[in-house]
Amino acid sequence: MKVEKQLPSTQAAKAEAFKAAVKPIVEGVEDVTINVNSVVGAGDMYKVITNVTTLDDEAPVSIEHKEGEVLLIDFWATWCPPCQKPMQHN
């Protein structure tokens, strides 16, 4: 059995409560996968992201949502050919 559901970020507490409640029920049962998560969508508030390291090796920082502020986090790898071309401007 496989169950998957993505809930909006506003229902993160419900997703966590469901996972905690179902865990003892399916523990030890073979071929059962239950994956219920909440996802952040465009315009959603997000939890504070802590212990973010920076390129200048300063102390880790936290990333918080601030009303009216737009934040773009761009993940890429120097070894990844498809990542290299769009990153040339950096």
What can be said about this structure in brief?
With 90 residues, this protein is α+β, with helices and mostly antiparallel strands. The protein has one domain. The protein has helices at 12-26, 81-84; strands spanning 2-8, 33-39, 49-52, 61-63.
Structural overview:
This protein is about 20% helix and about 25% strand. By secondary structure, the chain is an alpha+beta fold. The chain has one domain. A hairpin with an 8-residue loop joins β3 and β4 (about 60-65). It starts with a strand and ends in a 6-residue tail after the last helix.
Order of helices and strands: EHEEEH
Largest sheet: 2 strands, parallel
- Provide the helix percentage: 10-25%
- Identify the overall geometry: extended
From the helix content, strand content and strand pairing, which structural class follows?
A: alpha+beta
Number of spatially distinct domains:
1
Trace the largest sheet across and list its strands. Answer: 1-2
- Contiguous low-pLDDT stretches (5 residues minimum) are none
Tell me the Rg in angstroms: 19 Å
Query: How much strand content do the residues show?
Result: 15-25%
The counted number of beta strands is 4
Distance between the termini: 46 Å
Number of helices: 2
Instruction: Please tell me the overall pLDDT.
Output: 85
Give the topology.
Blueprint: E1 2-8, H1 12-26, E2 33-39, E3 49-52, E4 61-63, H2 81-84
Parallel strand pairs: 1-2
Antiparallel strand pairs: 3-4
